[in-house]
C-alpha cells in the first residue's frame, strides 16, 4: 500500500492508501489543509481544535452540496411529473432515474472517503 505524506495546517502526516488512490488522497489533503488554514486564521486554536473546525467547515460544504443536489433532484422530479404524469402503479418516481442513483452513490462514496480520511488522521494524531 502506498504511503503518502500530507501537509495539513503546517504539519506533515503519513497516511496509507489503496494503490491508485494517491492523487485523490492528495486532493483531499489539499482540501483539508485549506480548511485547516481557514480555521487557524482566527488564531489561538490548538492543533486539535483547528482540525475540528476544519472538519466542520468541510462538513458544512458537503451538507450545502447535498442540499443543492437534493433541490435539483426534486426540481427535476417535479418537471418530470408535470411533463409526464406517472401511471398510478409506478411507485417511486425516482426509482428508475439513473442520474439520480449515480449522484446519490457518488455523494455516499465521497462521504465515506471523508470519514475514512478523518479516522486515519485521528489515528495518526493519537499515534503521534
UniProtKB/TrEMBL annotation:
GO terms for biological process: cell division. Transmembrane segments: none annotated. Keywords: Cell cycle, Cell division. SUPFAM superfamilies: Cell division protein ZapA-like. The keyword Signal does not apply. InterPro entries: Cell_div_ZapA-like, Cell_div_ZapA-like_sf, Cell_div_ZapA_N. This is Cell division protein ZapA.
Amino acid at each position: 500500500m502506498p504511503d503518502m505524506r500530507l501537509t495539513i495546517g503546517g504539519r506533515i502526516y503519513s497516511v496509507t492508501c489503496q494503490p491508485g488512490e494517491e492523487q485523490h488522497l492528495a486532493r483531499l489533503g489539499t482540501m483539508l489543509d485549506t480548511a485547516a488554514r481557514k480555521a487557524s486564521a482566527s488564531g489561538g486554536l490548538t492543533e486539535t481544535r483547528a482540525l475540528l473546525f476544519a472538519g466542520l467547515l468541510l462538513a458544512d460544504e458537503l451538507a450545502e452540496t447535498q442540499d443543492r443536489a437534493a433541490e435539483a433532484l426534486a426540481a427535476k422530479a417535479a418537471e418530470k411529473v408535470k411533463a409526464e404524469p406517472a401511471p398510478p402503479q409506478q411507485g417511486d418516481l425516482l426509482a428508475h432515474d439513473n442520474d439520480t442513483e449515480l449522484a446519490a452513490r457518488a455523494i455516499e462514496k465521497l462521504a465515506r472517503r471523508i470519514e475514512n480520511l478523518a479516522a486515519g488522521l485521528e489515528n495518526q494524531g493519537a499515534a503521534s
